[in-house]
């Protein structure tokens, strides 16, 4: 049996998968950001159901100031954004006009598509970009 989710912070970040959750938790810790909670919504097909349940958590309406959703672009960043917006709409949450464009009101809602809003890929693509100029990458490329 899983533990029910609990709202402990005013900023909530929903991410796709355990690896993304570990990454963003480490990132927030490194950046010393303490008022944000990270939740794994599972796979891309699980976001709609997760969101519908998430907004029903008793403390959601009173305590959540901002909500971020991070999702991999996979093969199509536009389709990924539309999929997130569809899930937001079903959960009766504000719809951002585009990726990385927060809504107004409460909660602020923002969507981040990885690696960016124009390129197919995922979190791992972002990580590889971060080290692409490192000389060791030549050896990694050669290995593969």
Explain this structure.
- The protein is an alpha/beta fold and 144 residues long.
- It has one domain: Rossmann fold, CATH 3.40.50.
- Helices cover 38% and strands 17% of the residues.
- The protein is built from 6 helices and 4 strands; from the N terminus they run E-H-E-H-H-E-H-E-H-H.
- It has helices at 18-30, 47-54, 60-63, 77-90, 123-130, 136-143, and strands spanning 11-15, 36-40, 66-72, 108-114.
- It has a 4-stranded parallel β-sheet with strand order 2-1-3-4, sandwiched between helices.
- Helix 2 (47-54) runs parallel beside helix 4.
- The longest helix is centred in the middle third of the chain and has 14 residues, at 77-90.
- It starts with 10 loop residues before the first strand and ends with a helix.
- The relative contact order is 0.15.
- The model has no long low-confidence stretch (mean pLDDT 94).
Taken in chain order, the helices and strands follow as EHEHHEHEHH
Looking at the overall shape, the CATH architecture is: 3-Layer(aba) Sandwich
Tally of domains: 1
Shape: globular
Sheet with the most strands?
Answer: 4 strands, parallel
- Could you name the CATH class? Alpha Beta
Q: Name the helicity range.
A: 25-40%
DSSP strand count: 4
- Write down the Rg: 16 Å
Mean pLDDT: 94
Low-confidence stretches: none
- Residue fraction in strands: 15-25%
Q: What's the tally of helices?
A: 6
Task: Give the strand order, joined by hyphens, for the main sheet.
Answer: 2-1-3-4
Distance between the termini: 41 Å
């Amino acid at each position: 049996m899983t533990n029910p989710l609990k709202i402990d912070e005013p900023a909530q970040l929903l991410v796709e998968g355990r690896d993304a959750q570990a990454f963003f938790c480490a990132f927030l810790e490194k950046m010393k950001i303490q008022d944000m909670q990270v939740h794994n919504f599972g796979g891309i097909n699980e976001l709609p159901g997760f969101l519908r349940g998430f907004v029903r958590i008793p403390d959601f309406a009173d305590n959540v100031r901002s909500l971020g959703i991070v999702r991999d672009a996979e093969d199509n960043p536009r389709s990924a954004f539309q999929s997130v917006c569809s899930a937001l709409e079903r959960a009766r949450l504000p719809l951002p006009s585009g990726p990385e464009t927060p809504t107004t009101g409460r909660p602020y809602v923002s969507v981040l598509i990885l690696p960016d809003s124009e390129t197919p890929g995922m979190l791992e693509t972002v990580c590889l970009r971060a080290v692409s100029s490192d000389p060791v990458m030549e050896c990694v490329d050669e290995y593969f």
